[in-house]
Specification:
The protein is of the alpha+beta class and 185 residues long. The protein has helices at residues 2-24, 31-53, 57-109, 150-172; strands at residues 112-123, 129-140, 179-184.
Length: 185
C-alpha cells in the first residue's frame, strides 16, 4: 500500500512541476518541445509500477535516452543545413563580386569606363552554378573623337554593345539574352 501512495505522490509532484515549467517558459515556440518531453516523463511516471514488475524500467530509460539523442541529432542537422545555406550565400556573393571585377577590367581594356556592373548567379535544374543575369552600364572613353552625325554615333554604340555582349556571352558561356549593356556618351 505504501507503494501506491508513493506513486500517487510522484504523480502529484510531477503535475505541479509540469504546470510550473509550462508557465515559466519565456517563448511559446519552445512550448511544444517541452510538452513533448514532459509527456514522455509523465508516461514514465504513470507506468513505473507496471515497469517495475517486469524489470522494464531500465529499458524505458534507455529508449527515452535514445529518443532524446535522436532529437538532438536532428536539431544539430537542421542547424548545419542553415549554416550551409549561409555559407552558400557568402560564396555566391564573393563569386558575383569577382565576376563584376573581371567584367570591369575587361571593359577598361576595351577603352570603356565601367559605371555599374551587376552580376547575379544561381543554380540551374541540375544544381550547376550559372550566371543568370549581367547588367552593365559603361561610359565611352572621352579621349575618342565623337562622330559628327549623332545617328552614326548611336549606330556605332549599338554595334559596340552587341560586340561586347557577344564577347561576354562567349567568355562566360551565358546566353546573350541574359546580358544587358548600356553605353553612355
Amino acid at each position: 500500500m505504501d507503494g501506491v501512495y508513493e506513486w500517487l505522490r510522484d504523480i502529484a509532484v510531477f503535475f505541479l512541476l509540469m504546470t510550473a515549467v509550462l508557465n515559466i517558459l519565456p517563448e511559446a515556440k519552445y512550448r511544444k518541445y517541452v510538452q513533448f518531453f514532459l509527456g514522455l516523463v509523465m508516461l514514465a511516471v504513470l507506468c513505473r509500477p507496471i515497469l517495475a514488475l517486469g524489470n522494464l524500467e531500465g529499458a524505458l530509460g534507455d529508449a527515452l535516452e535514445k529518443m532524446t539523442l535522436e532529437a538532438e541529432a536532428q536539431d544539430l542537422k537542421n542547424s548545419q543545413i542553415r549554416i550551409e545555406g549561409l555559407q552558400q550565400e557568402v560564396l555566391y556573393g564573393a563569386y558575383e563580386r569577382e565576376l563584376q571585377d573581371q567584367i570591369s577590367a575587361f571593359l577598361e581594356g576595351q577603352g570603356l569606363e565601367p559605371v555599374r556592373v551587376e552580376v547575379s548567379i544561381g543554380e540551374d535544374r541540375e544544381g550547376e552554378l550559372q550566371i543568370r543575369r549581367m547588367e552593365i552600364t559603361a561610359r565611352k572613353d572621352t579621349g575618342e573623337h565623337p562622330a559628327e552625325d549623332s545617328g552614326e554615333n548611336d549606330a556605332g554604340s549599338a554595334g559596340e554593345a552587341r560586340e561586347l555582349k557577344k564577347e561576354l556571352a562567349e567568355a562566360y558561356q551565358v546566353s546573350e539574352a541574359h546580358i544587358i549593356i548600356r553605353l553612355q556618351e
